[in-house]
Design brief:
Blueprint: H1 12-28, H2 34-65, H3 77-107, E1 111-113, H4 121-135, E2 142-143, E3 158-165, E4 174-179, E5 188-190, E6 198-202, H5 203-209, H6 211-215, E7 222-232, H7 246-257, E8 262-268, H8 273-283, E9 291-294, H9 324-327, H10 332-338, E10 341-345, H11 351-362, E11 366-373, H12 381-391, E12 395-400, H13 408-420, E13 424-426, E14 433-434, E15 437-445, E16 448-456, H14 464-467, E17 468-475, H15 478-492, E18 503-506, H16 510-526, E19 532-537, H17 543-554, E20 558-563, E21 580-585, E22 590-591, E23 594-598, E24 605-609, H18 615-619, E25 621-627, H19 631-646, E26 651-653, H20 674-688
Parallel strand pairs: 1-6, 8-9, 11-12, 12-13, 14-25, 17-22, 19-20, 20-21
Antiparallel strand pairs: 2-4, 3-4, 3-7, 5-6, 7-8, 10-17, 11-15, 15-16, 16-17, 18-25, 19-23, 21-26, 23-24, 24-25
Helix pairs in contact: 1-2, 1-3, 2-3, 11-12, 16-17, 19-20
Enzyme class: transferase
Family: Belongs to the polyphosphate kinase 1 (PPK1) family.
InterPro entries: PP_kinase, PP_kinase_C_1, PP_kinase_middle, PP_kinase_middle_dom_sf, PPK_C_dom2, PPK_N_dom, PPK_N_dom_sf
Length: about 700
């Protein structure tokens, strides 16, 4: 009998907002370095922007189609939108309080934010000169009442809505619009240091200070400027014209994204009602479009790039190491042939993967390289290594996912660059994203074929490998490598059936495999055998697997979950989920690795994966989970998981209350911060390999 989920799950949108609230907690944590707290405000803001562009936009689409459509949590789309709006307003208040507190604490370190009304004479001179040389050439003021049509407001940009007033007879008040050039210039302008004090000014205020230089010719008596921002639907609608290739249809769709429908409008709460009414009317925005009164400044995501004013107010510099088995070997490929090797990012260098590709590019026995790319760095050494391989006569096949959200343009550019270098580029499967992270190198020596594979939980991306916590398995296990090649065959020929023993592959069978494993745990529990599940993922939403976890809990299976983001499952419900506990860690690095451990009656199974337990991953993406067999690596992963569970510094309890309470440190228990203490775990395991 299927378990009902009515009132037994949390709506995914509300759960996501709870996750972002945990990010906001980091900005409030006095143990976090001060400038990093400011950057967490930026991360929170950036997350919220994407949430509106994607999830709120989706809710609005659903609401437009059917006002009676129910979602998880038994609410209509409009009811969910109302809940979202209420929670966003609540979090906005917390954000403002956190921001003001951080500003006060920065002053204690002689760092001051100033606006255009607080400048000294020297700073006024600097602001005028900076404006003249760096800002004025980029501005395009638009007199709205004189413009032939109302200008299009771009997503991600911020604008100054300007009100111009004069007492001259016959003069009508005017409104103008100025886009703030944050793509071309830094958002934060740092004045020359004076007597050990550092002063920072938003570029918005630099423009405000110089408004008379823009409009002064017309002798206005009063000029006021207020910040506005619009967020648009970012969903891509692909052209159905079969005469066009996927590359061309994606390029056209990206152009159309810029004209997405508004889903949020933020304005300075001090903006006069007359200009607010004028703008919202011209933009055809009403209360259903999430009109939100904000502070003086918007696009707080720019705090992510706040200048380094005091290294003592930032995280200590990240120390990355090379894996000892790579350090001991002149050849990456030879090292992999001797042992399976697990890299833990960001603790260990991503450059090992780049060296893996570079060696394959020039190795005389390497004949072929296949790789799947979802996101890559703007200046990608991975791409350069693949081009080098093609120019060295290797057969290189690259699966580029053009629909990686917000990286589509970058991927389009790189796919063209790869093709021009002679690389075979494939674009995946219609209506399905390729999200797995695979690379396979083929060596041929005297007719004997040897494969080397890398299977990762995160992207082959130099930058994210410094800030995301991920895992990458390097293996020459031929059975695993051959199955990885089958995944590439499936991508190119999805109409064929393939069998897998060591990999769990979506969409073909991943969910069903997890169900079988959970059913086995249920059976073992009833028979008195070891029965437990220990899972780590970014999101848990899939209804089928949630029902199965509830069933396993009812049957006595002990379940521990570490879920960074969305979690629809509610632990601790009597007679349903009493055997389930859930933690979530938000810290310096973004927790991104997916790890799945099943007791299996004592013969424990361990998998690493690219996939969360979400419908989109299991049904609409090509994903891979890989079994881990090497005992040293299995031990390292177990230690990683147990350390994460023991965290009593950055771990929060996830439950139906959505309060995000921290895991309480028990009396006399040592303080454990998993992301910091994992350095010791890695060092211990590296010493064991010497």
């Amino acid at each position: 009998m299927s378990i009902s989920l009515k009132n037994r799950t949390i709506n995914r949108e509300i759960s996501w907002l709870s996750f972002n609230s945990r990010v906001l907690q980091e900005a409030q944590d006095s143990n976090v370095p001060l400038l990093e707290r400011l950057r967490f405000l930026g991360i929170f803001s950036n997350n919220l922007d994407e949430f509106f562009r994607v999830r709120v936009a989706t809710m609005k689409r659903i609401e437009t189609v059917s006002k009676k459509k129910e979602l998880i949590g038994d609410k209509t789309a409009q009811e969910v939108l109302d809940d979202i709006h209420a929670e966003v307003i609540r979090q906005k208040e917390v954000f403002s309080e956190s921001y003001n507190q951080i500003l006060k604490e920065l002053e204690a370190h002689d760092i001051y934010f100033v606006n255009e009304t607080e400048l000294t004479e020297d700073q006024k001179v600097y602001a005028v000169e900076y404006y003249r040389e760096n800002v004025a050439p980029l501005l395009i003021p638009i007199m709205l009442k004189k413009a032939p049509e109302f200008p299009y407001l771009r997503d991600k940009s911020i604008y100054l809505g300007v009100k111009l007033i004069s007492k001259r007879i016959g003069f009508k008040k005017q409104y103008a619009l100025i886009e703030v050039p944050t793509e071309e210039r830094p958002r934060f302008i740092v004045f020359p240091e004076k007597e050990g004090k550092r002063y920072v000014m938003f570029i918005d205020d630099v423009i405000r200070f110089n408004l008379d230089k823009i409009f002064g010719l017309f002798e206005y008596e009063n000029i006021e400027a207020y910040t506005i921002k619009i967020t648009r639907d970012a969903e891509l609608d692909l052209d159905d014209d079969v005469s066009k290739g996927f590359y061309d249809r994606m390029k056209k769709s990206l152009k159309q994204r810029t004209t997405g429908q508004p889903v949020r409008f933020i304005y300075d709460q001090n903006m006069p009602k007359d200009i607010l009414r004028y703008l919202t009317k011209k933009l055809d925005i009403d209360e259903d479009d999430n009109i939100i009164a904000g502070g003086r400044y918007h696009n707080s995501k720019d705090f992510m790039k706040f200048p380094i004013l005091d290294p003592n107010l930032e995280w200590e510099k990240l120390v990355q190491t090379d894996h000892i088995l790579f350090s001991k070997s002149k050849s990456i490929l030879t090292a992999i042939e001797k042992n399976d090797i697990l890299l833990n990012y960001p603790y260990q260098h991503f450059r090992a993967f780049v060296l893996f590709l570079r060696e394959a590019a020039i190795h005389p026995d390497v004949k072929e390289i296949k790789i799947s790319l979802y996101r890559v760095a703007r200046q990608s050494r991975v791409i350069n290594a693949l081009i080098s391989a093609a120019k060295n006569g290797k057969q290189v096949t690259v699966m580029v996912e053009l629909r990686a959200r917000f990286d589509e343009s970058n991927n389009l550019d790189y796919s063209k660059k790869l093709q021009e270098a002679g690389v075979k580029v494939i674009f995946g499967i219609p209506d399905m994203k390729v999200h797995c992270k695979l690379a396979v190198v083929t060596k041929v020596i005297d007719g004997k074929i040897t494969y080397h594979a890398v299977i990762a939980t995160g992207n082959f991306h130099e930058y994210t490998a410094k800030v995301y916590s991920d895992m990458a398995l390097f293996t020459a296990n031929q059975e695993i490598c051959e199955e990885a090649l089958k995944v590439f065959s499936f991508i190119e020929k999805p109409y064929l059936n393939f069998r897998f023993k060591h990999l769990l592959v979506a969409p073909a069978a991943m969910r069903n495999q997890y169900i079988r494993k959970l059913n086995r745990e249920i059976k073992n529990s009833k028979e008195g055998k070891k029965a437990y599940v220990f899972l780590k993922m970014n999101s848990l939403v899939d209804e089928t697997l949630i029902r199965k976890l509830y069933q396993a809990s009812r049957s006595g299976v002990k379940i521990r979950l570490i879920v960074r983001g969305i979690c629809a499952l509610i632990p601790g419900i009597k007679n349903l989920s009493e055997n389930i506990q859930i933690h979530s860690i938000i810290d310096r690095f973004l927790e991104h690795a997916r790890v799945f451990i099943f007791a299996n009656g004592g013969d424990e199974e361990i998998y690493i994966s690219s996939a969360d337990w979400m419908e989109r991953n299991l049904d609409y993406r090509v994903e891979v989970s890989c079994a881990i067999y090497d005992e040293q690596i299995r031990s390292e992963i177990r230690d990683f998981m147990e350390l994460q569970w023991a965290d009593n510094t950055k771990a929060r309890l996830i439950d139906g209350s959505l309060e995000n309470n921290y895991v309480v440190q028990k009396p006399n228990a040592p303080k454990i911060r998993a992301q910091v203490d994992f350095y010791d775990v890695i060092e211990r395991h590296q010493k064991a390999l010497k």
